[in-house]
Write a structure and sequence with these properties.
The chain has helices at about 1-10, 50-65, 85-95, and strands at about 15-20, 25-30, 35-40, 40, 75-80, 105-110, 120-125. β2 (about 25-30) and β3 (about 35-40) form a beta hairpin. With about 130 residues, it is of the alpha+beta class. Helix content is about 30%, strand content about 30%. The chain is globular. InterPro entries: RutC-like_sf, YjgF/YER057c/UK114, YoaB-like.
């Protein structure tokens, strides 16, 4: 029985991992199996929350296209705001962008981002 178990493991091959726009520290996206993981996307430093959110979502769309997906296949969105007072302003942009028939699981929290000039960061997981 043990030999049978071992041979079935040896025959299976691991799923491939594909990295998009890989750099020395991080990749902008990683695909494993049928799932794409996007790095946290940030907008133009110093822009207001509306402008940063629009820029982030445009970059999310570009990366989703690159990995063979789109916003209707987003499984989860994690949104970090530098200040929760910007929640309604960010939501106005998000609500205009997201497909209401395909809303993902989503969480929004407040965090100190990489620089004070960043007001919003969005992390996406999507089906491919």
């Amino acid at each position: 029985m043990r030999d049978c178990f071992r041979s079935s493991i040896e025959r299976s091959s691991p799923m491939s991992i594909r990295r998009i726009e890989a750099g020395p520290r991080m990749s902008q996206a990683v695909i494993h199996g049928n799932t794409a993981y996007l790095a946290g996307q940030v907008g133009n430093p110093g822009a207001n929350v509306t402008e940063q959110t629009k820029a982030v979502l445009a970059e999310v769309e570009r990366l989703l296209k690159e990995v063979g997906s789109d916003k209707t296949k987003i499984l989860q969105a994690i949104i970090w705001l530098a200040d929760m007072k910007d929640f309604a302003e960010m939501n106005a942009v998000w609500d205009a962008w997201v497909d209401p028939a395909h809303t993902p699981a989503r969480a929004t929290g407040e965090a100190k981002l990489a620089t004070p000039d960043y007001k919003v960061e969005i992390i996406i997981t999507a089906a491919v």
